[in-house]
Amino acid sequence: MTLSVLQFIRRGQTVTLHDVPPERTLLEVLREDLGCTGTKEGCAEGDCGACTVVIGEAVAAPEGEQLRYSAINSCIRLAHSVQGLALWTVEDLTRDPLIARAAPTDIHPAQSAMVSCHGSQCGFCTPGFVMSLFGMYQNRVCQGQAISREQAQHDLSGNLCRCTGYRPILDAAQQMADLPRAQVDEAALLAQLKKLPAPPLEGADYLAPRTLAELLQARADHPQAQIVAGGTDVGLWVTKQFREFGKVLDVTRVAELRAIDASGEQLVIGAAATLTQAFAALQALWPQLDEFAARFAGLPVRNAGTLGGNVANGSPIGDSMPLLIALGAQVVLASLRGERHLAIEDFYTGYRKNQLAADEVLVRIEVPKPRAGQLLRAYKVSKRTDDDISAVCLAIQLTLLDGQVQTASIGVGGVAATPVRARATEAVLAGAPWNETSVAQAADTLRHEFQPLSDMRASGEYRRALLAHLLERYWLESTGSGSVLATLTPLAQAAAVQKAPV
User: Fold this and answer.
1) Contact call for residues 353 and 362 (beta carbons, < 8 A)
2) Which sign, positive or negative, has the C-alpha torsion 99, 103, 104, 108?
3) Bridge partners, 374 (sequence order)
4) Cα separations (Å) of 3 from 83, 243, 292?
5) Would the pLDDT of 492 be above 50?
6) Do residue 190 and residue 203 come from a single domain?
7) pLDDT tens across 178-192, in order?
8) Residue 59's closest CA among 85, 35, 78?
9) What is the tens place of the pLDDT at every residue in 424-451?
10) DSSP 197-263
């Protein structure tokens, strides 16, 4: 095995590390190899945010190349995934010569605001919050945007704190814009990034091709390589199951897989588009998905994870698949032999198993655009509002004409070994009048269509009852009889919904 060299930009300098195993996490490299102990390990699974760092990547824009800043969890991020990127940890905000401040002794506005607003108590989570604030500062304040309370809550959704109650941290987020500006010299940083070499395509244990042709050839040459498309789940295999990989094939650098195209009759989302980017494209066409998208995971997970990775992973409690099923999406699989299309519900063959051949990769997801008369809702039920796994995820899309259901498409998660389509319930609804009687019949069918298991998140009976009541809720909302929400928050609130009259 040939251990790969890792290079990235930090504090205006190129960091070069040799013999970095492919499964080594970024957090391990920072704390153990570079001595950056300000970045903390809390949960080692991307839930708490104590390990948050910010990466900067050169991206093409209409006005020319620019930097894109993303707060990510370093605990589940494979170290080699930052090859060729810029990286900031909490120690770097006052030591990076490329961050110009009003005075050399000034700390960064993200740090200064936390101090003045008393946003830290025990301090363990503070580095992660500061880095999420830094990402927010670069993406909002430096772009001339004011930070609202709602935006601050959105951008800090991946950070947990047991001490402060969040109010002073949200105050700090809003105060940053009022402090003396700290500006990254992006021109100088972009010039440095251009000098870094691309990862090798052969002879290394971590492969990160840049084009689709290179990816398909690498997949054919190394069918046993572990594919990584963001690493938010593969990272858990490392931190929780202590897996090691002989070879890794990282698809996130492939230009064709990162593209999103909404110009045609379908929304085409490259498999390596991040969840943040993919949901932004979906929300542009279906604005009612805003809350559902925000509850998918914390922002650092959405910044790192990809839609293709979530789909290919095939977790039965993943949230994107029920939505894509309801939208009638297809996956496109590719190899050197060509491409093939599958309805997303037909992609899965068993628990976390799919139809990908040994030489194939998932390259894109194609989603039909909305048409007149279509009504879409997506519901997520979980114990916590933010950063939690679904007990049940239900997405419903109907086409209505003159009070009658023309087509029905229903995707469900959390009730079977795979994400599933509720075909029996769809059959009851298709061609039926959209009224209380038809809805009651369909709800009863949905209640009995699946036999979900009981676990720590919910009992099987609760899940079955919840499916029926969510369909009833969908009908209430569609007729203006209930509040129109895109999500269902904690289980206690879900119980109240179950008692709503229909």
Assistant:
1) no
2) negative
3) 399
4) 14, 16, 41
5) no
6) no
7) 999 999 999 999 999
8) 85
9) 999 999 999 999 999 999 999 999 999 9
10) PPPPSSSSSEE--SSHHHHHHHHHH-TTSEEESS-TTHHHHHHTT----S-EEE-TT-HHHH-EE-S
Please tell me the pTM assigned to this model: 0.92
* 431 touches 440 (CB < 8 A): no
Q: For residue 286, what are the domain limits?
A: 198-370
CA distance linking residue 153 with residue 171, whole number of Å: 11
Q: What pLDDT does residue 481 have?
A: 67
- Residue 429's pLDDT is what? 97
Q: Determine whether 153 is exposed, middle or buried from the number of CB atoms within 10 Å of its CB (0-12, 13-18, 19+).
A: middle
Tokens of 349: 């063959």
- In this predicted model, what pLDDT tens digit does every residue of 348-406 receive, in sequence order? 999 999 999 999 999 999 999 999 999 999 999 998 887 788 999 999 999 999 999 99
Residues 191 and 207 grouped into a single domain: no
Maximum pairwise Cα distance, the chain: 71
For residue 16, list its beta bridge partners: 7
Structure tokens at 436: 């209380």
User: Please, what sign has the CA dihedral across residues 484, 486, 489, 492?
Assistant: positive
Give me the sign of the Cα torsion angle 37, 39, 40, 44. negative
Is 423 in the same domain as 278? Answer: no
Do 185 and 233 share a domain, yes or no? no
In terms of domains, do 333 and 391 share one? no
CATH code for the domain in which residue 246 is found: 3.30.465.10
Structure tokens at 241: 């199951």
Same domain, 96 and 167: yes
Instruction: Tell me which of 8-17, 126-135, 190-199 is least confident.
Output: 190-199
For the record, the structure tokens of 202 come out as 């052969």
Secondary structure (3-state) at 436:
helix
Output helix, strand, coil percentages for the chain, rounded to the nearest 5.
35, 25, 40
The total number of structural domains that make up the chain:
3
Q: Which among 247, 243, 73 has a CA at the least distance from the CA of 158? A: 73
- What burial class does residue 151 get, using C-beta atoms within 10 Å of its C-beta: 0-12 exposed, 13-18 middle, 19+ buried? middle
